[in-house]
Amino acid sequence: MLSFNKRYFVMNTLKVITVIVLILTVNGIYGKLSYSKTNATNWLVIGGFPARDGQYPYQVSLRNPSDNRHFCSGSIVRLYWVLTAGHCVDNRNSSSVVIVVGTNHLDENGTKYEVSNIVLHEEYNGYPNYTNDIALLKIRKRISYSSKVRPVSLGNINIAASTSCTLSGWGFTTSSSLLYPNELQHVTLTTISNIQCQEALYPYSIQTSNLCTYENGKRACNGDSGSPLMCRGQQHGIVSWGKNCNEGNPDVYTNVPYYREWIRNKTGA
């Protein structure tokens, strides 16, 4: 199914061909098509709004070195390590990714770091189930911390359903958009049980390694992949996949606590 395979594709019949061509041209799964300046009347990340400068100091933008285009997000976990979704870097090599830290704006450079190694989960599997959708990026030069650049705290215990969480990212801000917002957006979402999630997304498979959220009119979209979901001050999710931005469906995340031992083994975090 196209919308699932490419995750959050805009299913507007007048635009879908353009979206597919642009996204596949950039990186095969997601691509930064463009970005737009935000005005005060927009409610953005679908249903979200602009974050304060430095509000999410662990958030990073993954970009193409050749044109500085954003294609996914990630989070700083240690001085040399960034956490992201596996599908963001599947079929990429380290020279095809740079990370940008310390800025909320895609038109500002922030501080750029080269990637020396991509550690994709050994049992990652893409479409149709996107199992073990997690990866780590080893940074060539240690990340310099500041008030706007800090590591995230990772969750160790599964979060319960009905927990209020926050998603931040640069994904599409409407279901029909072809523009990424220039400013980092954030939105409050509520976790649901995996059983509820499975019922809503059947026949697609929800696994014990997943976490789901649902909030009417609020959700992730193209460009939010790899973004952190924060619950009670800790990262519990990594944006993985969803079914159409414009429909009342849950969002699916890689469940960080499920992979804590894997992350620890690779990074020491």
TrEMBL record:
The protein's GO terms of the molecular function aspect are: serine-type endopeptidase activity
> Which residues does the UniProt record annotate as the domain Peptidase S1?
45-268
Mind telling me which PANTHER family this protein's record contains? Answer: FI18310P1-RELATED, POLYSERASE-RELATED
Family annotation (InterPro entries):
Peptidase_S1, Peptidase_S1_PA, Peptidase_S1_PA_chymotrypsin, Peptidase_S1A, Trypsin_dom, TRYPSIN_HIS
Q: Which UniProt keywords apply?
A: Disulfide bond, Hydrolase, Protease, Secreted, Serine protease
What is the protein named? Peptidase S1 domain-containing protein
GO BP terms in the entry: protein processing
**Source organism phylogeny:** Eukaryota, Metazoa, Ecdysozoa, Arthropoda, Hexapoda
Q: Which SUPFAM superfamilies match?
A: Trypsin-like serine proteases
Main localization, broad class: secreted
Answer yes or no on keyword Disulfide bond.
Answer: yes
Which one Pfam family would you cite for this protein?
Trypsin
The protein's location, in the record's own words, is:
Secreted
User: What CDD domains does the entry give?
Assistant: Tryp_SPc
Asked if the record carries the keyword Ribonucleoprotein, the reply is no
The family this protein is said to belong to: Belongs to the peptidase S1 family.
> An example Gene Ontology cellular component term from the record?
extracellular region
